[in-house]
Amino acid sequence: MKLNFIFLLLCLFIFSGCSINTSNAKNASPAITVAAAGSLTNAFTELGAAFEQHNDVKVSFVFGSTGMLSEQIRNGAPYDIIAAADEVSIENLYQKGFIYADSINLYAIGRIGIVSNKKNLIHINTLDDLLKPEIVKIAIATPEHAPYGLAAKEALVSSGLWDHLESKIVYGKNISEALTFVTTGNAEVGIIALSLKDEELNFNIIDDNLHTPLYKSMAVTTNAQNEKLARSFINFVISTEGQEIMSKYGLISPEE
């Protein structure tokens, strides 16, 4: 009798535990994971918080170079969305079957500029100033993987400065790492996204005629775990509210 009673209590404990776990699973908020270019770190962090508040959902981000994120998607990474720093990467993923064609949207235009730490006494106003002897290292993102790095190289080539400055260039694996080289003093200056500048940095915009325009596209991936919610997030990014948030970080609306 005693053994039967203990067995009954054990069963009740197990089943009540299962019931609680099931309830928690049912009550969990819907979630998506967004793979986003490093240049979007500040803007998308705010966008994600606003979207979560409006919809009672969870948005997680993986920030990195567009090339690296694209490679991860091709290898099966379960990202719901990729927000690239260019258009070409989205087109390439679509051609290989990793993107829903009807989900592709142009969502912003980026700008680049020369950045230096306000703590040092180096004053850089133009690309020609990068020739100064006190400039030993110039940080940019790797052009092969990061559209902002490619734009930086194009600007230097267009200005006739690349051959003179190439030996000074240090490469970050993405635009955020290039910025870190500057903020940590491992490079005197860098060429980074306007969307990443902050009050601790001197920033001078680069003429966008010197490089290929940084039109940015985003789309839902065919690896998506929650396609419907992913499409809703993209709609939010291109909405009036979403574009107002983006503009705070120097990301230009494609409608302008």
From TrEMBL:
Record has Signal as a keyword: yes
The record's keywords, sorted A to Z, are: Metal-binding, Molybdenum, Signal
Output the PROSITE patterns linked to this UniProt entry: PROKAR_LIPOPROTEIN
Signal peptide per UniProt: 1-25
Q: Which Gene3D superfamilies match?
A: Periplasmic binding protein-like II
Name a single GO biological process: molybdate ion transport
Which GO MF term does the entry hold, naming one? Answer: tungstate binding
| Family statement | Belongs to the bacterial solute-binding protein ModA family.
Q: Output this protein's name.
A: Molybdate transport system substrate-binding protein
Report the source organism: Natranaerovirga pectinivora
